[in-house]
Fold this protein.
Amino acid sequence: MHEVEYEGTSYTVRDGETILRALLRQGARLNYSCGKGSCHTCLSRLVSGRVETVREVDPALANSGHFLPCISLPLERVVLRPPELEKLANPAEVVGRRLLADDILELDLAPSGLLVYEPGQHVHLANLEGLSRPYSITTLPDEDFLLRVHVRRIRGGAMSNWLFEHARPGVELRLRGPCGSCSYSRDLRGRPLLLLATGTGAGAMAAIARAALQAGHGAPVVLYHGGRRRTDLYLHETLLDLRRQHADFSYIPCLSQEDGSEGIRHGRITAHAFDDLPDLSGWEVFLCGHLAMVEQARCQALVNGVRRDRVHADPFDFANAQPVDDATRIAAIPADPELWSALGHGPGLTAILRDFYGRVFADPRLSPFFRGLDRDQVAARQYGFLADLISGRREYFGLNPFNAHHLMVIPDELFDYRESLFERVLRDHGLPEHLVRRFLALHERFRTSIVKSEPLPMRVKGLEIPLRRDSMERLDFDTICDSCHGEITAGTPARYHDLTGTLHCPQCAGLEADNAAPPHG
């Protein structure tokens, strides 16, 4: 048995017990979600001591002095603290700035060392006061040592307004990254590319287009840039020049609020792009810009034949943006009689979900999110939700996707992993290819309800229910401790964890059995 110190308090760790489990068992206030190293929510700084990890982790974490308590066992007394993300960042100096439009600023940055990135990726910029936001890289790796980003001034946006007012040559920023898979690599040569951008997403998409054309891509590259007004098309002349220079490059500007002129179309880019290209089988699709555009385009790309793993997205998630609620999404989804018929009006869906959750509960990455739950009950709840959507009955009264997953920290990569498993199940059950695509598109509508970087409160009719992680309970019946498997007699205080669904006796929870303990969340 070893000791772990966290925030000035010492906790005991039993043999074979992870540091996270030990801390939670004894009431430590540490953020966590999956408990298996997938989400990185419990990322902590290792101040002293040695740990052993039960699975491989990113070497950059260890090199920065960070580790994941959920997959770490102590080898001696360990001291940990909350993470210092700035230790994962590098200094960068502002060396140039220029306005590309009244509300769009271009910054030239000189990082302290060589930054290796792919065209289209993004970096997180932070000032020395701690403000931080991600921005797309608009330069190509072989163009210059400098890094260039485009910043749009957002009303109420703390970071964008700070950059407009204070990011002058000589100012130091912190840079973390590069990040994101919405990028071009030479192994994509020969495949047609569809690039959709709104706002400053045009900078990243233009970088991808230029990288492809310089690499001798050998297939069409089609870029749609959408905005509300003419001033939003801030790269219009640059992209027109690129179109004149390369026969394989097409540029289609679109405005949603002003009438088109001089080759500028009126309407949304999602409508124009997918009407122009109804068959996208064999294409690679890149999406960068407003969250709503990316969400709609993801779904339609699948319906138009794009392989799920060939859709690359970098949505702009503004800090002050209002979330779209699931009720609005559900109301906009029409019934799909053809898909419902192919599912045998129910039995086919039951068979698919039983097979799928059988694989999920056996999967080392996905099963931790269902710890303590019954597989058949999970499949039955999902059946009720999906059958309601596909059939159009609208009789489902269970939790919507956001509330059902509000405590789970699920990154995009894990969502994609889950969808790849579901896609295999659909094909194994013989669903026609066009219906497989429509089914996957249905799931995509709820990606932004499920993917998140931290647990969030439930939302009911626009109201948030305070987030509770654990609480002290006195049950009216005898039960068993999930840690030591000893008896917890009726009326004895015990600690219940909402996320893991585990109950710990006073000894395991570090409580005094004969003292009342106040609830806390």
In short: The domain at 326-463 is CATH 1.10.490.10 (Globin-like). The longest strand covers residues 90-101. The chain has five domains: 2-84, 89-179, 189-316, 326-463, 470-509. The chain has 16 helices and 26 strands.
